[in-house]
Protein 1
Amino acid sequence: MRRGADAVVELLGPSSLVVAVGLVATTASLANQVYFMNALVSVAIVVAIYVFVGNSGVLSFGQISFVAVGAFAAGVMTVPLESKQGVLTTLFPFLRDHTIGNVPSLLLAAGLGGVFAFLVGLPLMRLSGLAAGIATFAVLEITHNILREWTKIGPGATTLSLVPETTGPLQATIGALAVIAVAFAYQRSRLGRQLRASREDPLAARGVGVHVHRQRLWAFTLSGALAGLAGGLLVHQLGSITTEQVYLELTFLTLAMLVVGGLTSLWGAVVGALAISGLDSFLSQAENGVHVLGVKLDLPAGTRLVFLASIMALVLILRPSGLTGGRELRFPRRA
Amino acid sequence: MPEPVLELAGLEVRYGTVAAVRDVSLRVDKGEIVGLIGPNGAGKSTTLHAIMGVLPTHRGEIRLHGDSVRGRSPESIAHRGVALVPEGRRIFGDFTVEENLRLGLAAHRTHNGAEPLALAYDLFPMLKEFRRRLAGALSGGQQQQLAIGRALVAEPDLLLLDEPSLGLAPLAVDDVFQALRRIPERGVTILLVEQRALHTVALADRTHVLVAGKLRLTLDPADAKDPDKIVAAYLAS
Amino acid sequence: MILAAVNFQTLSDAVGLGAIYALMAVGIGLVFGVLRLVNFAYGQLVMAGAYTLAFTSAWPVPLSIAACFGVVVALSLAMETVVFRPLRGQSPAVMLVTTFAIAFLLQAIALIIDLRDDTLGEVAASITSLNEPISVGGVDIRKITLVSVAVAAFALLALALLLTRTTIGLHTRAAAADFRTARLLGVRANRVIAVSVVLSGLLAAAVAVMMTVQFPLVSPDFALRDTIVVLVGVVVGGIDRLWTATLGGFTIGFVSGVLNGALPTDKTVYLPSAVFALVILVLLLRPAGLFAWGRRAAVERA
């Protein structure tokens, strides 16, 4: 009975936060809505990353590659036909002459992200620690380079624009919820539990028959698919995308969101994403002058990043396991 | 009576919420060899680690020459004249024998100008012969000699040994115990944690039996002829 | 095709770059050795040094350089006290993200200071004369290349002597090999770490001086790209040992220099992909590092 209740809370906690944000987003002014949407899309990205990094304990700097692939794929395939043929003249014909709808583009993004992750993961999942970090970073660099130069599959170094802005509060909320649901299902499944066992003690896990390489590959592929989906959500939220938007800065920001929230739990991923997005949005507002509890706060220009980075560093110095301590949300227990 | 070199009073050490060592009290006076034996997991290593400051003490006192050292860092305790020969020896395999010994000088308190490594070389002539060899190339018994020598060059008042006979061939074990016998001649006091009960009881002035974190019994060298008594102590609950 | 385009100028520039990257690799490797921490903010130390040189451009050159060293070493020690010490023993993920946050923070602060004069970028112009070439035996070598190689050789030699011939060096090597046992033997942890951090800072300052000769325009992302490349080089070379890390840094610097100089611009667009594909290949074949033999990959231990 208790375990069933725990499972429900574990899923419901993060989900209700996301739904709450979505609801507030619908009531916010159009100017403010962007902050909430950023938060929701961030949740999708960070949870996607968590599915691999949190469960396996292997730090990957390459997950944003899959967000990039998803974003560009969904973006290129949904730009209206006339504009596409006029602007993106160097594309392969089968890309240039076809357009798909919103939901198909999201499915395509997820599919491509998953396939790409699988192919990359096949060789890479043998690595751990620093070697894995650098190798996945190399994947990020390669993806960035190819997207930027290969004008037959995308706009290259120029901005991909005129993408239909179909990610409103509803789509963002549903997208984030979908990613959370899949992450939850995975971590509760036998696959997920096997991987978590290997996180604590790879040798011991092998000893009881856990095929570590295979489990990591599953998680990596799933993470890639979810990241691709998040990329699709992203491009439909922004209406445009550039290679720089899915590169180093986003990589570090999302990784920081995960670690600050709590690397090893779904709750941590969601809390981290929302907390830092929220903080970032608040600080942006503060730079333009904002009222807090009756006091006017007016940050000098450029200090937003200073505060954001300081607060993140401070949280980690004071509480290295993250805001949630890396634990899932649970029913309060009698002591 | 002068202050004991080491005194433990009601020592309690915990791993999380579990007490690995409970209400342990003992004293070691200058020039003594005191043994601490018991079954696996009894808390013997834990006791040594607590004395050395590697593990925090939950309750009780640890006193060196009458001064409390509870809560101090390992380096600070080393600088107060305590040397630990850790379980598994933990020598630096990529360094030479001589470099390993020189490392032991880190805790040396006075520089009286005499050849500092002489203490180790006198006790273990083999070390002098192999001093330029990489420590990783030595045999288990030789590495144990190196570990003890390294602890001694700091001229400690108290030498803690954590299962020095572990993994050693019988001849090597005898060598180690022979060497231990000679150490108090130099004014060094010994607290010896061991698995080899009979060897220890025969060597030490006094041997305590630790079972499940609590002291059960104290044995003296005469009891070395009475293995049943020792077994009974181990099995007592 | 590539070899045909490699001339002496390219080679010498590549060696110069390799020397500078080797110094950065040592700086990163020293701190990793005793703290098991990859300091992503190392590039910011170089940036701080470069800014100091820029703001003291009007001073006499020796004073300007002294100021640079002073600021960088002070900043390194501040990092150790405020950030590294509380994080000792934490997981690699936490340490990496925190040092990244610090890097971000320092960049943001630099941006604010830089923009006080309403233009982005400051110029550190005092020793740019070193960027000019001199003729040696009929070929042109830039003076800065000679200086870089000389400084790197001197620094590495001095460091090697320090580590192998002095007591503090012995203690530092021991702490890097087995921190816990070293402490048991009485090695003073804080002293060893402070020494390593100061040395690492001195190296960063030297790198700042040499880099501003070639790139006098200083902005908040000064040396950021280089830090990332050096980190890749260090891990590919083998972060577990100081000399393999250094060799890795030098190699990636040299290779970058050669490729950049030798390939015509229109063929270099996919160069990053090729280089990083090579990095992945090397890591798959030798995860502990290209120059490491018979070792397992670096164990992140407390």
Protein 2
Amino acid sequence: MLHHSAFFLILSLLMFNAGNSFSQQMKTLTGKVTDSYGTSLPGVSVVLKGTTNGSITDTNGKYTLTNIPGNATIQFSFVGMKMQEITVGNKTAINVSMEEETIGLEEVVAIGYGTQKKATITGAISEVKTEDLAKNAVADISNSIAGRLSGVIAVQSSGEPGNDAAQLLIRGQSTFNNSSPLVLVDGIERPFNHMDPNTIESMSVLKDASATAVYGVRGANGVILITTKRGTESKPTVTYSGYYGIQNPIRLPSLLNSYDYATLYNEAVHNDDPTADPVYTADDIQKYKDHSDPYGHPDVDWNRAELNRNAPIQRHSVSVSGGAKAFKYFVSFGSIDQDGSISKNSFKTKSVRANLDIDITKTTKVSINLAGSKENRAYPGLTGQYKILVSNLRPNMSPVKWENGLWAADALGGNLVAANLESGYQNWGNNTLQNSIVIDQKLDFVAKGLSFKVMGAYDAGFFKEKDWHTPYKLYNKTSTGEYEEVLAGGLKPSLNETSSESRSTAFEAHLNYKRTFGKSDVSGLLLYTQSAYYEDNFNAGRSQYGSSAIDQLFAGPLLNPTNGGSASENGREGYVGRITYGYDSKYLAEANFGYNGSENFPTNKRFGFFPSAALGWVISEENFIKSLKFIDFLKIRASYGEVGNDKIGGRSFLYKQPFYYGQGYVLGGNSPLPVQSIYPGGLPNTMVTWEKAKKTNIGIDARLLGGLLGFRVDVFSEKRDNILATRNESVPGTFGAELPVENIAKVNNHGFELELTHKHKIGDFQYSIGGNLTFARNKIVYIDEPENVPAWQKRTGLPMGQFFGYIAEGLYMTQDQIDNNPKKESIEPQLGEIMYKDVNNDGKISELDITSIGHSRIPEIMYGINLNVKYKNFDLTALIQGAGRSSVMYTDESAFEFIYGSGALQTIKGRWTPDNPNPTYPRLSLYRNDYKKEASTYWLKNGAYWRVKNVELGYTLPKLWLNRLQIENIRIYVAGTNLYTNVKFKDWDPESPGGANYYYPQMKVNTIGLNVTF
Amino acid sequence: MKNIYIVLIVFAAIVFASCEKNVLDKGPLDVVDQSTIWSDPSVAQLYVNDLYRTITGHHYWDKDRWNAWDNYDNLSDLTEGGHSWLSCYTFNYGQLTAEYNPYGEDWTTYYARIRSANIMLDNADQLKGDENLIKTIKGEAIFLRAYFYFKLVRNFGGVPLIIHAQNLTDSLSVSRNSYDECAKFIVDEMDKAADLLPLSWNSANVGRATKGAALAVKGQILLDAASTYNNPSNDRAKWQKAADANKAVIDLNVYSLYPNYAKLFLDDNNPEVIFDMQFAYPYLITGSVEEIVGSNFELEPQSVTWGMVRPTQDYIDMFEMTNGKAITDPGAGYDPQNPYVNRDPRFYASIYYNGSSNRGNTVETFVNGKNGPGLYDEFGTSSYMTGYYCRKLVDESIPAAYLVDEIKANWILIRYAQILLNFAETEIELGNEQEALTYINIVRDRVGMPPTQASGADLVKLYRNERAVELGMEGERYFDIRRWKIAEGLLNGPLHKMMITKNDDGTFSYDVQKMAPRSFPSRMYLWPIPIDEIHKNKNLVQNPGY
């Protein structure tokens, strides 16, 4: 917006000068205002600039102004349209055609180390605004992105408060190593997940080499730029937004009740050994059925017993912004308070931010950004228990409590519910400080259009974890009816504390040049940057506390205290350059380079050069197109360049042979002690270097029919090589050493993105529909595979993460099939077990028949459909988000009932029995897994899904009501996040980590919210 | 212009404050450089300390594979693992294949440690200083490398002998050496180690390898090499070598049988121990053997214990009556309905049975009893309940719930009784029956069992029974039945369990029942080399049958 006003300021100044030559005669002015289709627009305000003198167009769009001086400027404004200013001059009639404001030709977008006008961008960049990010009632911004940005693949595999970030992949994956993008907040690498979305002005995603080459060795995975809000020249504006919501798991698996469990368990026992006695007698089963003995024959759904229904979440955010000419400010405070779905599990943050801009001289601007945050995560004391939220404990294991209210010990000597409530706590606290100062000095006195900018930043993080474990009492009931105490969770209380501190500094110096010569726009950038990071941590613990009265270190005995610590550091340095040239806003050219170094590579191989170039042609500026009225804007752009990825995975300083200290073996007769030891780490790779990506992008941006239709298409292709991968596959185990990763693997990645928008307004009814679709498919071009592996088991040529398994050809339904189908040498199949395909046709089933099946876990397609509707004071928005071409493999409990003594899914009721002609699940068994449990297409599910990610209905209170209260705006809304999910398999959410239990389910949230502006 | 100066000063301040001169001049803050290790024998000793870490006991344990908690004897006729998901069932149902061996990682684990030992021995000549220290750390490294080969050879047969750390430029497609070459290598190396190692260590170093340990491992590998599976022509010279080697340990006159058999496993560093893993609470090494001992052993169900070593009825039947007669002997006085009276004292020291006591509580292994098959059938283990649990190594002074935290017994790898029995076996095979009986009876006498006077085939049978009773659940039986080549006969068909029902009058009925049949195809005398190793190295020849 800043640039917006500056533009008009300059425009009106020019016009003011031009107007001086005209006489100061007063006159009457008339005219008609229409929209871009020529339809007359009533209600347009027509004002003499700088005065309150003005009028409003009538129902025919006509107006009349009197007493207008000749040098005057008239402003035409209407909600949703771009304001127009027209100098009167010697005209007596001015007809105006208004344009939709949202087209935003002047809109600027954050790019690497600067901003650029959207219209002249030649790279592939997509962006999302704060309003959209704040829509979803989620604590982690990464969960607001799916479906809103083209080019971003997002997978959220957990709903654990504070730890539920989605994995973000820009244009999919091109490496086996770290594929996550570089995320910069106001130009500095910082965690962004728990930022208050109300403090974010915009989020840009830089996708092609042209956009990311300036980040050089860190640009290959794409870059996300987050820009925080700043003050503008205006009166103080106070904004409050907040909501309160309730959370519930999107999906929980349906488990067998005790009656079904006992019946089917007996069936499994019988299947395994027809002569065996049933484990559950008819009497047991009757008791499970009629619930007549709830303590002796319990029936517990452990997920539901443990789960908090309707766990609350609330977010509040207050900001003040405004400013005068030389001083602008944006100050905000935000908080999240989220309860987990299990006991004693919560996530809380508080954050503050102050962004200040001061013009200390006419040519010098100082910007100061200060931000701080405080995060807290709390868990039950027993570390393992809290994640077993989606658990599969069997229903008849024990009651939760005995009839007298004592906690029951289950057969494992535990009790999930009691453990979460009474085992102490784990608290994670994370405090961060983010400070930066930027000074921007115009150097027009040296050369017109030249400026110099420096930025210094200092961020600090303080992490503290405190784990307090307390024993708790459970009870067994003996055969004589007495309660026998079982202590769980350790003998005595224990405490472990971890504390770590991180410091990072960053420095940048920019030399910028920007000038217009006639029709030519030229800009240039030269930049030096460096950053350094240091982190250390230590931990200490004591155990055998005499009592649980004081949960502090000093209060424990010095019997066997533990302590430890470590430290690490890294540094980066780089040079950046950029030249852009535009002729008549029609022909655009750009060249970028990054020359970066990182400490992680051998001294002679630290710096790399990463160039890129891009061209653009704004066809709509050509005269032969200008005459075509339905085309508002049309641009073709193409880019090519090389970028790197230095997140090479594995250990740092790979070029050195490490020897580590360890606490190893115990020695010593009467007073044994662990002795210190030294052991060799993996072999060094003295040639190690970064991954290199060659990226090509071709795109078209278009807006048609006066904003009714907009689209953007990008086609991209990437060749990534030098990917670090291990050669282990072909080095025999007898060599005995962990081989270093080497820059040997190659992956290609290609795909396209599509964005479509349609906006329209019919009377008071305004709506827009937007859709985006991303398709990205990768292919392994080279990895080191053993020579003797059969062709169908090679991973080369397939996408990364491709599933492998047997091809299931249904279940064995007849003895004939058993007799005539190939089978394993070691064991005969039984009726109702899975029939595998003999892929290599050698007449038997063996591991050689395993082949590639389905897709990978990461979807190749991601799409979103946005809907915005406004009618009078009501507004409605909706986001439908989906993914396609991915697979989910059912494993463990999902594919093997009763395994690990667990319960089982209701799905198993469709099992094979001699009388079931259409089984949907194999024969039940306690231990037979040879024709069942192995990965096969039987257990591979289609991971495609779509979900109603967000729906929000708002009502803005009429202005009349508010004027007296001096309130500018009040809007109330109800919203839902993850309201409905459509997927082809039962039991698990399509984004869950794998088709089995032991994870924290994702949440759906219903909220009510309020936005107020003073 | 004044303002410009202010700006320039602020600029300069930011530049100086933020900019670091050699920002890339950084290195790892957590590693040691190799040159420091070989410049000082006391640092090199730290390197040797690490080599000990791979030693595992009777339980196979790998911290990354939580379901590999098996006792080796769960693969034999003595015990059951009791949980269908345990790795032992891959073996017990005869399903070991080149594609799937739950313990196949042994191959890479031991070769990694062998490489580590090779690095030490390749660099040992650089060491200068304390000659005595240099001598012993060389001895330890030689001992440990040979011990790792011993562990490999016992399961895989002959393996490639790699005695220098290879470089990537070397020819890595090594071939297997024969079993006899490997055995000879281990014997020669143990001789070298025995020359370098002391008979005993000062108290701070107890637990390191000794001369006795080197000679005992040599005695065992020579016994393995002389046994039927590895010596099909019954070459007498091999037996003689084994006899001499085991006798050499006896003749050291360092070791003696500990008078209290039950306490033998709990009273650390007693004179019967030849080589063990030291361990004591609270120095728990997370993920180590010690951590899970407690939870493997002991009864089920109890909190944190899993009862993963469950003696079979076949094992229980091996315990003689106190009169020295087998229970099948008509004059033994064995009552099948009162089976636990007057048995070999080692029965009471080794086994929890119905009616025995555990920490003051009565053990109930009857149907629907506290520790028996019935409703609390966690992990589907009822059908694997044998009626018995392991008592050896259980320290009842530690509350059952805290075994994981407080287990402290050392983990004995070789003890003197095994050497005495080894020697007795060689004497039987060499035809010196009286000499054999002398040593068998020394072992029996320690627990008060009457001496025996068997001969011929009866003596072989008695000796093998005696060895199982004495060393049961210590992990030797699995190796014994393979080297004697009798596993096929024992393990093709069902083993037995004791089903006990409590009668209304409080008495018990005992009924021996069959369990799910075991299977032992003849290929399983040796483990397969993991299939991917075969893929990677064309010169590796797979063991027969895989």
